[in-house]
Amino acid sequence: EAQVTQNPRYLITVTGKKLTVTCSQNMNHEYMSWYRQDPGLGLRQIYYSMNVEVTDKGDVPEGYKVSRKEKRNFPLILESPSPNQTSLYFCASSPRLPRFGYGYTFGSGTRLTVV
Amino acid sequence: SQQGEEDPQALSIQEGENATMNCSYKTSINNLQWYRQNSGRGLVHLILIRSNEREKHSGRLRVTLDTSKKSSSLLITASRAADTASYFCATDESNDYKLSFGAGTTVTVRA
Fold it and tell me: What pLDDT was estimated at residue B98?
């Protein structure tokens, strides 16, 4: 089944403790992206990647890192999480850049709470 | 940055009725897409309409696009309880590298 797999689904952590949210897709998509969803603010892009070893900042990159060493994986790293990073996170992928007429396939989401 | 804005914010209808929601955006786009999200789950792609298209259908969904007014509408006909969800429009600005999402319309279909 074609899908984007995120793990974990839920995570509660303490301020400052490094964490990684994994994202993997099995569709050979070139483009991958991370969003966070917050009430009243909608979905905001954190980082994106157009292909292996090609990543760039989205609208809200502060406090996050990403890497794209393999085409299928795009982990999101929080080096020193803070309470304002409490949010619902989504990984998404598409065959190429959305502006070429491609929709996203989303993962199921990771609900992160930082205390 | 939020490119699209949906209207209304919330909508409650009876099963069998039609649901219409609108999306307005600010800059020129290549495509406009609609997504559905069930309570806290991942968004699901519903339909894409290109900037040179005016109307598109997919099953019980009908999407219109008016680029002169920078607006789109999503019509769900003969609604079912399973259509209860939040609906988001998403746009790609001409030279951008992402989809920008609106805040969504929450649709409740009453049995």
Answer: 86
Q: Where are the beta strands (DSSP E) in B38-104?
A: 43-50, 55-58, 61-66, 71-76, 85-93, 100-101
The predicted structure's pLDDT at residue B2: 52
Mean pLDDT over A10-37 rounds to 97
Residues paired with residue A110 on neighbouring β-strands, in sequence order: A89
- CA-to-CA distance for A60 and B28, rounded, in angstroms? 23
Residue A15 C-alpha, separation from nearest chain B C-alpha, in angstroms: 24
Q: What is the pLDDT of residue A25?
A: 98
The pLDDT value recorded for residue A42 is 87
* Closest Cα in chain A, distance from residue B90 (Å): 9
Dig out the tokens for B88 from the structure.
């988001």
Nearest to A90 by CA among B66, B32, B90: B90
Residues of A in contact with B40 (CB under 8 A): 88, 109, 111
- Considering CB atoms only, which of A58, A88, A103 is closest to B98? A58
